[in-house]
Amino acid sequence: MYSFKINSHVSFPLEGLDLKPFLAKESPSQITTYDLLSVICHHGTAGSGHYIAYCQNVINGQWYEFDDQYVTEVHETVVQNAEAYVLFYRKSSEESVRERQKVVALANLKEPSLLQFYISREWLNKFNTFTEPSPITNHTFLCQHGGIPPTKYHYVDDLVVILPQNVWEYLYNRFGGGPAVNHLYVCAICQVEIETLAKRRKLEIDTFIKLNKEFQAEEAPTVILCISMQWFREWENFVKGKDNEPPGPIDNSKIAVMKGGHIQLKQGADYGQISEETWQYLLSIYGGGPEIAVRQTISPPDNDTHGERKIEAETRAL
After folding, report:
1. How far apart, in whole angstroms, are the C-alpha atoms of residue 204 and residue 241?
2. Sequence-distant (≥ 6) Cβ neighbours of residue 65 within 8 angstroms
3. Alpha-carbon gap, residue 92 to 31, rounded angstroms
């Protein structure tokens, strides 16, 4: 029922923290040393207190204390003796700094470039901040066919950076990946797929609305089919464009129960009622099951009911 703060001082290096002994054997990382970038400190008790942060300006190497609206220059010894709560380290590599400088120098060359290449802005940000940015990944703005997805074309300038040929070749030879892109175009294959998908969605939702209106107009349907609302909501999200992927086969297993060798509707199940025509339409597209029906049977009048007809409802699998 009680908590308290541990005030033991934790020593930590500002530079050259080597984590190689703690790496997994299958780790592909070649750089294992880290430099401190920021520290969060807590002053007070476990129940209350105040947070401050120390952060380094990576341009000039100066450390600063951030205490609410106050920012103060501090010496690195102040940081090293702080009551550290959270430490933020980043990989350090002189080679990565030299590579960035090399790219800047290549970009500033006045040599004419016959070709210009597009590169993922996301990957270039990794190159500028990570010591191991991984291979170039231009698929952040490309589709699987090598073009620009129609849904991204209107803001593709936010996703790419234009590089001269010499800079692209340096980065590609150094990191690999790709693919190389020196022309942006809308993918015609994706455009056809989008239009086909839109037509499919419209057809399915229009057909459902039509069949459901006919079902609602029936005064006394003899058969009412049950459908899981969980699956129906997934289908509804798909046809309304909220989900990109269609649902799987109709899954009525959660609303069904086996009784007397027959599949019946589970009591309290989350289900909807649809017509037999609607069920057959959805089943023809998605498959699945099991098929569960509420069937109304009408008994002939007898003397006890004074000529009234008795309607019995039974739920069973058709």
Report:
1. 12
2. 52, 53, 54, 71, 72, 73, 74, 78
3. 8
CB 221 within 8 A of CB 295: no
Pairing of strands 292-299, 310-316: antiparallel
Local confidence pLDDT in tens for the 318 residues of the chain: 678 888 888 899 999 999 999 989 888 888 899 999 999 999 998 888 999 999 999 888 999 999 999 999 999 999 999 999 999 999 888 888 899 999 999 999 877 888 999 999 999 999 998 889 999 999 999 999 999 999 999 999 999 999 999 999 999 999 999 999 999 999 999 999 999 999 999 999 999 999 999 999 998 888 899 999 999 999 999 999 999 999 999 999 999 998 888 888 999 999 999 999 999 999 999 999 999 988 655 555 555 544 433 333 344 433
Ordered structural domains, the chain, with CATH = 17-92 (no CATH), 95-178 (3.30.2230.10), 203-316 (3.30.2230.10)
Verify cis geometry, omega within 30 degrees of 0, for the bond prior to 290.
yes
Burial tier of 126 (Cβ tally within 10 Å: 0-12, 13-18, 19+):
middle
The encoded tokens of residue 49 equal 């207190």
186 and 153 in contact (C-beta within 8 Å)?
Answer: yes
Q: 158 and 184 in contact (C-beta within 8 Å)?
A: no
Q: Give the C-alpha separation, 151 to 142, whole Å.
A: 11
* pTM for the whole structure: 0.67
Give whole-number Cα distances, 4 to 47, 53, 131, 167, in Å: 8, 22, 39, 55
